[in-house]
Structure formats: C-alpha cells, structure tokens
Amino acid sequence: MEVVQVLHMNGGVGETSYANNSFVQQKVITMTKPIMEDAITKLYCSTYPEEIAIADLGCSSGPNTFFVVSELIKAVNSVRQKICQKSPEYQVFLNDLPGNDFNTIFRSLSIFQNKLREQLGPGIGPCFFTGVPGSFYGRLFRKNSLHFVHSSYSLQWLSQVPRGLENNKGNIYMASTSPPNVLKAYYEQFQQDFSLFLKCRSEELVDGGRMVLTFLGRRSDDPSSKECCYIWELLAMALNDMVLEGVIEEEKLNSFNIPQYTPSPAEVKYEVEKEGSFSIDRLEVTEVNWNAYQNETDLSDAFKDGGYNVAKCMRAVAEPLLFSHFGEAIIDEVFRRYREIVADRMSKEKTEFVNVIISLKKA
C-alpha cells in the first residue's frame, strides 16, 4: 500500500464525509485550545513580528480546518489590541497529502475570511492562504519561513506500513495477539518518521518558532493496550467475521495493516530530546469519549446511537484505506457490522481516545 497515495479522509460534504463526521477531532482541538493560545501568545510577544506564517499540517477539510486558524488569529489579535499594536499580516499554509479534498477548503475560503473580518473588525491584517499538498515527513517550506506549526490527530499516521508484519495474521493493527516483532516494527517506524518530522520542521521554523502537536496516543507503556488499539481490534472482528463467511479472502485480510502508531507521552518526549532541535514547553494528556455526542443535547435519534456515531467517524477516516485494499463492494457491510460491535462494547465498557499534546519551542 502506497500510503501517500491512498491515505486521506473522506472528502466532500456528504453523509460519510470527514467534514460531517469529525466532531471528535473538533472536541480535541477545543480541549487543546488553551495550549495553542499560550504558545502563539508567547511567540507574538517575544518579537511582535509584522507578519506571522502559520502552517496547519494534516489540515484535512471541513470546519476543523478553519477552526484552528481562526482561534490562533483571534489569540494574536486579542493581545495586539491590548497593547495597541498594529495587526500583523498572516500567511496560512494548509497542508495535507495530495488526495486531500482541497477543493472543498478553497470553496469555503471566502466565507471564512468574511466571517473572520466581521468578528475581528477592520483592524485585522490581511490573511493569505496557500494549499500545500505533500507529506510532512519531508521538507515542505523554505528555511526559516514559519513562525508557528500546528498539527492535530495527524502525526499518529505513519509514512508507510511497517515492514515485516507478515505474521500479524487476523489483525489489522497492533493487538494483544500481535507477535513482539510486530510491535517493534511499528515503534521503529514511528521513531524514524517523527524524528524526520522534527528535523524538517526545525529547518523551516524561525528561531524561537513554536509548534503544538496533538497525537492520538496512549497513557500505557504497552503499545498494544486496549486504550489505543481497541477501536481497530473491533474493526478487525467485523472483517474476520466476513472472512469466515467467505465474503473476504483470508489472504487479503492478512495482508492489510493500518499505517498508524499511537505513542505514549514518554515516547514523544524521548524523540524530541533525542533529535535536539526543540525544547518542551508543555506535555499533557487528555481523554475524549469515542462518542463525541455523548453529552450533547437536542440530538436527532440517529445521533443518540453511540455505535452509529463512532462507526461514521471511523468510516470517514478509514474508508479510503479499506476501499484501496478490499474494493468498494464490502464497505457498507463492514461498517454495518462494525456499528453493531462498537455499540455492544460501548454499552459495557469505558471507551475513550487518549490525546498526547506537546508544545515545543525551537531551541
């Protein structure tokens, strides 16, 4: 599987699109907002730059793309008004892999810019947007050209499926039944990728530049613990059932593995310190329920169904990978079964995603 070519969230604004099924991700960004505001405020107050270049890496498409940018600009604008400083100009780079739905982003750009001007008034400086397709496991920008880098729920995705997973049979990710070599291969791929990410960003950020990165991660030292792997184990259950019924070939399932690694805070910290370009300002861990709508009011009957919500969220993320490997014919049936399995487990167990958030300053 060529990850760069097939990894992207479901595009458009339809029922199974990422734009309409990314409420979990929005909640995580909202939870991280104080850390983002703190970082960009410190950046701005250190030199009061006349222009600020912001990169959102793994921006995807939909409301979350502009939500991050909006909150960062609002934070700077609030500070500069208090000290009667002229607004800086903003250059915003929206990055994701080439398969990302950039068209939906650009179609809604003018609406966002008009709304931002209405909210912040005529004193706000101009804001220029650029789409940057490409992998962040490589250079994307000129040297010393960025002031602030943000990435949320993207860096757990690996540049490729680790090599040597042939004996991970019946699993589609790390699992309690995965052999030790599988866990080792996943961790080593994460180390290689994240180290390269840090190296590239250190070249692109100005001295004193900041990054706030949020990983889907885990608290446990065990990379195959339920808190990070369970959501995929349940999808593997649906696929294995379809193998037993002859709908999917066993060989096809055994050759499918998710290109993701959910790190612990200690693993993230270790790679940052080993690479050496950044100092750690903050390192925090939070949780969010699998069903982001759990405590919401005024929901339609469909959205009161936790299994339905989680299955749609995961479909928006995983469908392109499954489609590429298994074909279109199985997709609806896989997620119908997955919804039932997830609903059953959520009724019996505590189900939460763990978020590892790190705020960094270029040393």
UniProtKB/TrEMBL annotation:
It holds the Pfam family Methyltransf_7. Gene3D superfamilies: Methyltransferase, alpha-helical capping domain, Vaccinia Virus protein VP39. InterPro entries: MeTrfase_7, MeTrfase_capping, SAM-dependent_MTases_sf. GO terms for biological process: methylation. Transmembrane segments: none annotated. It comes from the Eukaryota. Keywords: Magnesium, Metal-binding, Methyltransferase, Transferase. One of its GO terms (molecular function) is methyltransferase activity. This is Salicylate carboxymethyltransferase. It comes from Gossypium mustelinum (Cotton).
